[in-house]
């Protein structure tokens, strides 16, 4: 897919959606069973896989996706002060500031208001209240807060910043914000999270949303994992046992479908 900042949102999403639709319409050409198509992605790719799954969920003109696999996905840009963002703010390979930087680059092609986004002054109070049922530290199990968490008091709302980032409220950019009617139609899901990853809580919150809406979820949490670890599973000296475990669980999930 086309990359930001040269190609801003929704370019990457549209590329992935169009490619998936083309594939689903031509499964016979590719020698694929139309009832066994899975979308999968890691990190930003997990965001795109989730967004594509949501968009296709209500399509009656295409085969239904068999499953979605989301590997440490980034799923929201409303709150960069959830427990995992606080605890792992300086943990490689994805620092808290870089997470905000990347999503701003994707949306606007620049990171001019990164500090306001990190502080939480980029979203109106009424919008935060609307989405609090889905994006809230209250929905994170207490065991994930023991490494340290302080409730964040956001800075004063800045309307001029919101004008530049209001598309953060679009589910095709932030899939965690999709309505229940969409979530309920999603296919069976596999979510992998890592303890030492700023995006951990994005995955945990989405897991809860799926389960609350009756979607079957297989969740695997790497207690000793960090962001990007699965990608390093076969990188010789950079390979970690946890990455191999994560990949093995993904393979097991696929074989069990």
UniProtKB/TrEMBL annotation:
Recorded hits in SUPFAM superfamilies, A to Z, give: alpha/beta-Hydrolases
State the superkingdom. Eukaryota
Q: Which InterPro entries match?
A: AB_hydrolase_3, AB_hydrolase_fold, GDXG_lipolytic_enzyme
Gene Ontology terms, MF aspect: hydrolase activity
Stored Pfam families: Abhydrolase_3
Q: Which intervals hold domain Alpha/beta hydrolase fold-3?
A: 1-112, 166-230
| Protein keywords | Hydrolase
Q: Which PANTHER family match?
A: AB HYDROLASE SUPERFAMILY PROTEIN C4A8.06C (PTHR48081), ALPHA_BETA HYDROLASE FOLD-3 DOMAIN-CONTAINING PROTEIN (PTHR48081:SF32)
Know the name of this protein?
Arylacetamide deacetylase-like 4
What is the species of this protein? Phaethon lepturus (White-tailed tropicbird)
Q: What is the lineage of its organism?
A: Eukaryota, Metazoa, Chordata, Craniata, Vertebrata
